[in-house]
Amino acid sequence: MTPKLPSRHLPPRRLLAVAAALALFGGPVEAQSAPEPAPSTPPPAPAPAATTAPATVVSNCPLGAFRCAPRPVNFSMCRPNAMLSFYDPTLSKDSSVRDTSNTFVTSERVDGSNQTVYHLEGNVKVERADQRMQSDVADYNEDTTDFDARGNVRYQEVGQLVSSDHMRGNQDASTAIADNVSYQMLTNRGNGIATQGQMLDDQRSRYLNATYSTCDVGNHVWEIRAKDIRMDKETGEGVAKNATMYLGGVPLFYLPTFTFPINDERKSGFLTPSIGNNSRSGFMLSTPYYLNLAPNYDATLDPRIYTDRGVMLAGEFRYLVPGSIGQLNIEYLPNDQGDPLPGSNINTKGTDRYLVKYNDNTHLYGPWSFNTSINRASDQNYLRDFGDDLFTSSISTLTSSAYINGAGKWGAAFWDAHFGADDYQLVDPTVPAYAVQYKRWPRANFNVDYPINRWLDVGANTEAVAFRKDDVVQGNRMDLYPYISAAFQGAAWFVKPKLAYRYTAYDLIGNYQQYGYGGMLAAGQTSPFNSSSPSRSLPIASIDSGLVFDRSTSLFGTGYTQTLEPRLYYLYVPYRNQNNLPMFDTNLMSFDTWQLFSTNEYSGADRQMNANNLSAALTTRLLDDNGVERLSASFGQIRYFTQQRVQTPNSNNTVNPVTNWSGSDYAVDFSTQLNDDWRVTSQYQWNPNTSLTDLGAIAVQKRINTDGILNFSYRYRRQPGSTLPLLEQYDASVVYPVSDRWRLIGHWTYSALDKKTVEALAGVQYDSCCVAVRLIARHYVNLYNYTTAVGSANTALMFEIEFKGMGNFTGQSENALRNGILGYQ
User: Fold this and answer.
1) Separation CA 70–CA 741 (nearest Å)
2) Domain annotation covers residue 720
3) Same domain as 231, residue 317
4) Is the pTM for the entire model greater than 0.85?
5) How confident is the model at residue 37 (pLDDT cuts 50, 70, 90)?
6) Domain co-membership, 249 together with 337
7) What is the pLDDT of residues 566-577, one digit of tens each?
8) N or C: which end of the chain has fewer CB within 10 A?
9) Euclidean distance between CA atoms 235 and 168, whole angstroms
10) Taking a C-beta distance cutoff of 8 angstroms, is the pair 777, 800 a contact?
């Protein structure tokens, strides 16, 4: 046996086969192979991150969060890859120094009798920077830089591992050809085989009769098989020609040209397809295709087939240009073949149907920007027929708006201003037209706050609106709300007095007297108001004060800081008769703890309540050593020293009688999260005037392992002025991890008043190394006539599959799960 030669130092240009292997396989190759035979001498032990797919760290969604971020693609269930047998974790990870690095060659034998061609035999190893090539035999022509490596060729660089039977090419030209190629990416899960690989230059390569998959080597649940695959490292894109997608060895579909990503950059290609069925539109097939048009704008085309309605083309266009960001979504279905919605007198059969959503935020100049949100549907039944979740199908109006917004600091004053318009479209056939909000054409407001010193502020809130709607009273309204406030506080106390003045003026237009304006008094009375310009002005005075005590305590062996926070709030607003003022955008708000410290129980400027009230509340909290609130409980009530005389019109267009209450509901709020797995929240309101419960609610949430959640809630609310309940519902949902691969999903909402299910959802999710599958069945009420108490339900079945590394889970069931299951991730 010829003794092993010492390492020989060659000039940088003598890369031998390693340079060609780099150029040929330096980009993410997408093809696959059988495991490499184990070498006679065990290789160095690979680093743990290289021998197995790195576990994806998924941060748990905080308990109580309404919507959770989507889970990232997780390859943690993939097994170690057999091709890593020759992986060396000690090899350099810096590829930027290749051109200036020396090349080191070792072999058991070398023949230099030909002064131009070097012949190397026996465990040939060539290294430069992050590159290493090993083979049984190699020839290198120093003059032409031609090379020829044969026998068990293995190549490693920072991004991948490659094996081949035979590799030959030219180093200077960055060209090479390799036979029987196998590869494994280290930066992602791509792996595959090819009968031949061709290096076209240092950025582009071509593979013949190749495959690609992100599944485990030797266990391809899915793969792409193509006669010609070309890779481009600059664009991060692979293009397969005459390509067939296989699932479980069965051909799924064929495409003359198929593109897929070879890195984490955006690229054009198919996204996750969806297959479903619902009782309103029949079977549905969706095959979205993503178009990476430019770094700052892209589009998605989503052709859908509904067996009961026809072919729909949906699309999304996003853009990001200097000073502007926006998104346009369009759904269009020509010549609808579906039957009208039961209980609706709107027949859309034979019509063209569409939905348009457009959002844009554009910076104009300095602190000013222009914000647009346009939402329009072709008809009132559109969301009921095509809405893909309960939240969407329960919307009664679509809101469109366009505003110029500004905010900033002017000297010591802080200000914000808005000017624009709001429009509303009715999209619920059971809602009468008069119930839709007024159009605000236009609307402007300006708010300013000027701190005179550290404890004294002055400011104003102003608004001017033009209200427009057919067949009702119309007009313009200006609301001025200047104030002066002070804040005195110490470490354990605060006192905040505030004095304000509110002036609201109207300019009624059209035949306003036809609708009883200006004047609406009790039945049988004649209105003394006959002005087209009614107004209201009054002062508003309040004092907010409180104390904060704290002490150290323990609960179940854990130390906490407990606080005790009494609070008093006095409010005085003199009475003004406002029956001659129209109700443009004002409603009585539901009572809750927040209203204990509010200056108005109405949501808009058309009514300002009178008050001579004192609110008292007591709150206690438990804070852990990190300052996290683990428990909070509060109890409070408003005491009325004078009658609440300002009321809203009832259904007979007469004013409700004044109240003689001496106190409001007793309001109790409680929430606790003593550990990271359990959370309980509850609300309770008891009316001392009727001795009845006005509101009762409790919600329990438990985390199950790391990716499961259990929710249960009960809600009850009584009808105002009645002993009958307005709402009584039970709601339960669960995401239960049966194993690391299987999750069961369920959601159930039951109305005790109607004695029927409002929504029921059941599903299963399967997650493996490279495939995720979701099957969801839903039954939900999508139309309810509150006059006749007749409801219409929709039943839907959705099947979605994701090929990991080829697209994201963007199926239509995602919104239903994230909106319907608190904590779903």
Assistant:
1) 17
2) no
3) no
4) no
5) very low
6) no
7) 999 999 999 999
8) N
9) 26
10) no
